[in-house]
């Protein structure tokens, strides 16, 4: 290789490296660089809320970046199989006289290449480990999605319940206001004592406080949903929907089968076992020799372009070498042996943790299914309770107006009606939350809580 050509090659190589650095720095996710939220317009039902959260929530942005980084890690491990190339260029001044002359300076340029041949299966295991880590991160992405879906659905159902509570509290206030008017009219004509008027006023004031609390709860739930959906907290969003029965007809066996097949935490656990096995392979690679192929080129001169200069042609030297080297550690005082034993025990540990995760998955499915059945039964009971309480209140009001009943009977009937309505809304919200929890326990993404198929 010509000396000037080598020097030119070196400068081109350095220029390419410098150019690639800013290009790599600019390789960023456009969605992350933008930092803008999708425009909020129109009504948001449960399904749209879930989709918006999956697209815009910062937790999703973080896990997507982690997944992208894991992909780069796989590429990095793959690159370890290929050759590596390095170069150097430098100047050294010698002030000591030699046989060939006085003080002199050396300019040296070199180019080296190395190709791994055999590293005791460590390179292969490292690549497989990186690929498994990427697959595990993909499962983590699904896990984050499921957690976010559960949070959004739970808060959305809580918002709908809060609105039902507001409606119930408004009805309660209206009933108590009507009763206060009747009592006041009776008191004005001397048919009822002042104490009954005061009792009605106290109950009305308490009902108004409950109404204020219920309205504040609605605002709180709306703010929480805005946060989950990455919508500015001050933005008014039209959340639409109502609590209703959600059909669910899967058996326990069907739910368990689907959970064991789809749950991302079980996938993550399995990948963790396989990663631990690759770590054990890497630790055992210390017992094998390491073989590498090498090639080196060197050029020396007395000036920057690596020429000899003047009559000192002996100062110019150019040569290359090629070879294969093998090395192996023969004794490490037991360090490699016990490190390999530790890696083997780690595999057993991770396998046991996976089995524990599987057991907990089955329990979560069973618990969620029982909660669904309990909430469905409570809805049936609460429906009947509300119907009975409405009739009892109607009769109490009629008896009071006919002067055959007492104000206490009316107020008690009103309280029971309000309590029955609250129990119904709570049972319906609990039923929806239990259905949402069961889908998450099965590892399935049901955005709108539609009927399972």
Automatic annotation (TrEMBL):
It comes from the Bacteria. It is found in: Cell outer membrane. Residues 1-25 form the signal peptide. Keywords: Cell outer membrane, Coiled coil, Membrane, Signal, Transmembrane, Transmembrane beta strand, Transport. Pfam families: OEP (PF02321). SUPFAM superfamilies: Outer membrane efflux proteins (OEP). The keyword Transport applies. Residues 340-430 form a coiled coil. PANTHER family: OUTER MEMBRANE PROTEIN TOLC (PTHR30026). Belongs to the outer membrane factor (OMF) (TC 1.B.17) family. This is Transporter.
């Amino acid at each position: 290789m010509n000396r000037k050509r080598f020097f030119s090659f070196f400068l081109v190589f350095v220029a390419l490296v410098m150019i690639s650095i800013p290009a790599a720095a600019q390789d960023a996710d456009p969605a992350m660089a933008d930092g803008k939220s999708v425009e909020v317009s129109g009504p948001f039902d449960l399904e749209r809320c879930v989709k918006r959260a999956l697209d815009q929530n910062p937790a999703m942005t973080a896990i997507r970046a982690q997944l992208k980084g894991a992909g780069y890690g796989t590429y990095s491990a793959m690159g370890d199989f290929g050759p590596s190339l390095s170069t150097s260029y430098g100047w050294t001044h010698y002030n000591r006289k030699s046989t060939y002359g006085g003080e002199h300076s050396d300019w040296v340029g070199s180019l080296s290449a190395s190709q791994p041949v055999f590293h005791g299966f460590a390179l292969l295991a490292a690549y497989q480990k990186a690929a498994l880590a990427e697959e595990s991160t993909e499962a983590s992405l699904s896990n984050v999605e499921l957690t976010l879906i559960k949070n959004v659905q739970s808060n959305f159902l809580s918002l709908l319940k809060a609105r039902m509570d507001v409606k119930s509290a408004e009805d309660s206030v209206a009933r108590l206001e009507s009763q206060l008017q009747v009592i006041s009219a009776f008191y004005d004509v001397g048919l009822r004592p002042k104490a009954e008027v005061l009792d009605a006023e106290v109950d009305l004031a308490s009902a108004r406080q409950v109404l204020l609390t219920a309205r504040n709860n609605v605002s709180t739930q709306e703010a929480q949903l805005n946060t989950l959906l990455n919508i500015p907290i001050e933005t008014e969003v039209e959340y639409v929907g109502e609590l209703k029965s959600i059909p669910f007809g899967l058996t326990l066996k069907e739910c368990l089968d689907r959970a064991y097949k789809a749950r991302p935490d079980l996938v993550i656990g399995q990948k963790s076992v396989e990663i631990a096995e690759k770590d054990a392979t890497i630790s055992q690679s210390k017992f094998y020799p390491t073989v590498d192929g090498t090639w080196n080129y060197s050029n020396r001169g007395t000036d920057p372009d690596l020429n000899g200069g003047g009559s000192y042609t002996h100062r110019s030297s150019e040569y290359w070498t090629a070879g294969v080297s093998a090395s192996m550690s023969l004794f490490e005082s037991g360090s490699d042996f016990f490190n390999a034993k530790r890696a083997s025990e780690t595999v057993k540990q991770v396998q046991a943790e996976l089995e524990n995760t599987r057991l907990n998955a089955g329990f979560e499915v069973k618990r969620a299914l029982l909660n669904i059945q309990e909430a469905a039964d409570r809805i049936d009971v609460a429906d009947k309770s509300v119907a009975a309480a409405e009739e009892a209140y109607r009769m109490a009001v009629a008896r009071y107006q006919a002067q055959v009943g007492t104000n206490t009977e009316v107020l008690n009937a009103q309280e029971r009606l309000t309590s029955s309505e609250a129990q119904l809304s709570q049972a319906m919200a609990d039923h929806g939350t239990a259905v949402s929890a069961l889908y998450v326990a099965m590892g399935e993404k049901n955005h709108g809580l539609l009927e399972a198929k």
